[in-house]
Amino acid sequence: MTPLPLLDTLVRHYDDLVAQVRRRFGDAGFAREVVHDVCVQIIEKPPAAPVRLPLALLRRISHNLAVDRCRAEDAYRARVGSADAPPNADSGAPDAGRALDAQRELQWLSDAIEALPPRCRTVFVMHKIHEMPQPEVALRLGISRQAVEKHLRNGVAACLRHLEDMRRGR
Q1: Which one of 36, 65, 69, 135 is separated from 30 by 20 to 30 angstroms, measured CA to CA?
Q2: For residue 22, how many other CB atoms are within 10 A of its CB?
């Protein structure tokens, strides 16, 4: 099954999902990371059957991922805090291979954004990159909120297609 209907719901309710996680766990940055992880999870493992209540599912997945992240962080702090000497760990910097992969994916995403139609690209950048709320994007561009949502859906779908194509080597 294609994840697009679920992703459309995620785009439409992105701010609400972030706000829900932030209210429960207290950190806006953490909340955005969790919702982004939800997006990745949907892309990598789309549901096998149609989802009757997509927003409810997204809220549940967001909550569960946030709880999992908190538990993992607590377990990590407990392990590190209980060690007499720090473990032989790297400096925290990604290894060269991972850094190159991340740089390549960032370039692919940048290319995908640049390929969007001008209005779609403007809406996408204002909301996703500059984190401007959808109503403010609509106000600044003089378009309806529904038009903003449509541009975001189209932009996210186009970027996802481009990234998938690049990963497959097309």
Answers
A1: 135
A2: 18
Q: Do 156 and 164 form a contact (C-beta atoms < 8 A)?
A: no
* Predicted local confidence at residue 3, as pLDDT: 62
| Integer Cα distance of 36 and 126 in angstroms | 17
Alpha-carbon torsion, ordered 73, 6, 157, 163, to 10 deg? 40
Region for 95 from its dihedrals, namely left if φ exceeds 0, alpha if ψ lies in -120 to 50, beta otherwise? beta
DSSP alpha helix (H) spans, the chain: 4-12, 14-25, 28-44, 54-82, 96-115, 118-124, 134-141, 145-167
Q: How far apart are CA 113 and CA 91, in angstroms?
A: 33
- Give the CA distances from residue 148 to residues 119, 136, 144, 165, in Å, rounded to whole numbers and listed in that order: 9, 10, 6, 26
Cβ neighbours, 10 Å, residue 127: 23
Overall size of the chain counted in residues: 170
Whole-prediction pTM: 0.47
Question: In whole angstroms, what is the distance from residue 10 CA to residue 35 CA?
Answer: 8
Rounded-to-10 torsion of CA 76, 82, 87, 89: 20
**pLDDT 10s digits, 102-120:** 788 888 888 888 999 999 9
